[in-house]
Amino acid sequence: MAAQATDAEFALDRRDWIAGLQRGLQVIEAFDDAHPRMTAAEAGARVGMTRTATRRHLLTLQHMGYVASDGKLFWLTPRVLRLGQSYLESARLPRIVQPFLQRVAAGTHETAYLSVLDGDEVVYIARNGPNRSVNTGYVLGARVPAQVTAAGMLMLALRPEAQVQHWLATRELMVFTSHTIDSKERLKLELASIRAQGWALSEQQLDLNSRGIAVPLRDRHGDLVGALNITMPMGQESSKDAVARVLPVLRETAQAMRNLI
């Protein structure tokens, strides 16, 4: 987390700031599941730009192959995936963790993940294990609200107390199932409990019959860099038995990785 905070708070000299690059990326990020196709005016409204300026960015992105259009509506093309793939192929952490995730998967017979926190979302950047139904597994690059996953709650809980309080005060909690924690006071207590015990358990908060268990992944300096977690179908196994089965494997693996990060 320390490295992520430093990156987020990095003060850029205005002489080095390229406004066009920033706005172009904002235009790409304006598209989501609720806005898969937009006019230039609609995209501009989402990023706070005029229709004319947004259209120029969209046409440039279209020329580069990142956007397609029918003359009125614009949408992203698969070329955008190259941006995320470049990270997965070049970043050191996903490559280092793979043999360790394999160890976790072999020791638990579950799918193991490395995830990081990006804003309010957990991003899965490495995985290893058996392929199961889409409801209990995540593809690389998948983004999930942090508040409803074991890894996300863990990384939120391990932030400085002032940051946790600010996060709770400025966010609206989303509800996905009848088990989702929808009370800020209850979530505050849950985060405090996670912080005290040093690991997290989440059950059926995002998907029914899905359970997640996570432990922190720290570097040699003790700084939090992500979370090692397992996502599994709940089946007939109790919470206590599931934790007893996989938590020691996760902890041992996270400890073994510290000197390599």
Describe it.
This protein starts with a helix and ends with a helix. Helix 7 packs across helix 9 (184-197). The chain has ten helices and eight strands. It is 45% helix and 18% strand. The chain has 261 residues and is of the alpha+beta class. The chain has a six-stranded antiparallel sheet, sandwiched between helices. Strands 1-2 form a two-stranded antiparallel sheet.
* Biggest beta sheet summary: 6 strands, antiparallel
Using the CA coordinates, give the radius of gyration: 20 Å
- The strand line-up of the biggest sheet is 5-4-3-8-7-6
Question: What spatial form do the alpha-carbon principal axes imply?
Answer: globular
Number of helices: 10
* SSE topology string: HHHHEEHHEEEHHHEEEH
Mean pLDDT: 89
Helix content: 40-55%
**E-strand count:** 8
Fraction in beta strands: 15-25%
Structural class: alpha+beta
Gap between N and C termini: 13 Å
